[in-house]
Amino acid sequence: MKCIRGLFVLFMLAMLSSFAFAADDALPLSLTSGYSLTPAKIYPGDEVTLTVFIENTAAGIQALNTKTELLLDNSFEPIAVSENLGTIYPTSTKTSVFRFKVKNSAFAGTHKLSVNLTYDRGTTGQVQRAYVVDVPISESLFIDLQNIVAPENVYLKSSFAVSAKIANIGKSSIRNLYFSVAPSTGDFTGILPVSSTKTFVGNLNPGESKTASFDLFVSDSTALGSHAFKLIASSVDSNINQTEFFSVNVKDRPELVISGIGYSFAVSGQKRVLQGTDFSLSVQLENISKEQAKAAQGKLLFNEPAAGIVGASESFIGSIDPDDTGSAVFDLAVLPDAKPGSHKASIVLTFTDEAGNKQELIKDFEIFVDERPAEQPIAFYITLVIALAIIYFIARMWLRRFPLRKK
Q: Would the pLDDT of 13 be above 50?
C-alpha cells in the first residue's frame, strides 16, 4: 500500500512539473524592448549596427546556450551577424549586437530581416524563435525643394529657366545620373522646352553636388494660372529614381499700343497747328492684353529743345483695364516765332503690371507747324473806313448842291 502511495506522489509531481514547463513555454525569450538601428537614417554604402534586446520572461527557467543570428538578404553584406549570449536568467535581459553593410545597389525602401533565436531550456530540449526587424534604406540622392530655383510668376511670350542642386549625401558614388524635367501630368503644352528636357549629370561622389538647369518658353496659347512640373533624378546603375515638384504662375504682361495721335485747338474752326496758337496733343492708348496696366503715364520729348513749342511735358493716365483705352493729353503752345515745318518729338509711355514690373513704350512722331497768315494792321482798316465815309458824305453834298440837269 505504501508503495502505491509513493508511486502516486511521484506521478503528481511529474504532472506538476509538466504543467510548469507548459506554462513557461507560453512565455519564451522575446524581443520585449524592441531593437535599435545606427545610423538612424541609412543609405546605400553605410555600415549599420543593429542592437536587439532579448528578455527571458519565463518565471523560473534559465535559457541556456542562447544564440542569436541575423539573416540578411542580398542587399547586405555581413560583418558580424551571429552571437553566443550564454545563459539568460529568469526576468533578465541581454543585448545582441549585429553589424552589416548596405550594398551600393540596395534598393530604397524597407527591408525585412529575420533575427533567429535559439536556446536550451533545461532537459526539455532546444527552443527556436524568429523575429522580424525592419531596416529602412533611404535613397542616396537628395534634391532639396528649397534648392529648386524657378520664378514664381512667368509671362506669356517669354522664356524662363529652372535649375536644381543635386547632392549625394550617401556613402557611395552614384553612377550615370540623369536629370530631367516634365509636366507633373501629361505632355508639354503651352509651356514648351527650349533646351533638351533630359541632361546627363554624370557620376556623383559622396558629398558631391552638381547643378542642372532647363530653359522653357511660355507660348501665347498658354492658359493663365498655375502650372505644375516635376524634376526627376534617375540612375539605372545605382537604382535611383527621385522626383520633386515645382510650379509657376502664368500671367500676361499688360501691353499698350498707340492707336492714334490727335490735335484739338482753342480757336473754333482751326484745323492746323499755327505759329502763336494754343493746342492740345492727345495720344490714344489701347490695352490689348489680359492684364491691367497700372500707373500709366506719358512724357513728351522734343528732339530740338528750342523748337518753339512749349507747355506740359507730362501726363498721368492711371490704370487701363484689359481691352480698354486711355489717353495722354498735353496742353501746348506754339510761340509766334516758332520755326515753321516739321518738329520731331517722342512719346515715352511707362506703366507697370500688378507685380510692379515697369514697362516702357516709345513712339516717334512729327508735329507740323504752319506759318500764320499775315494780318493787315487795324489802323489801315480804320483809316480806309474813315476815308470812304468822308468821300461818301462829300459826294452826297455835292450832288445836292449841284443836281444833275436834264438835257
A: no
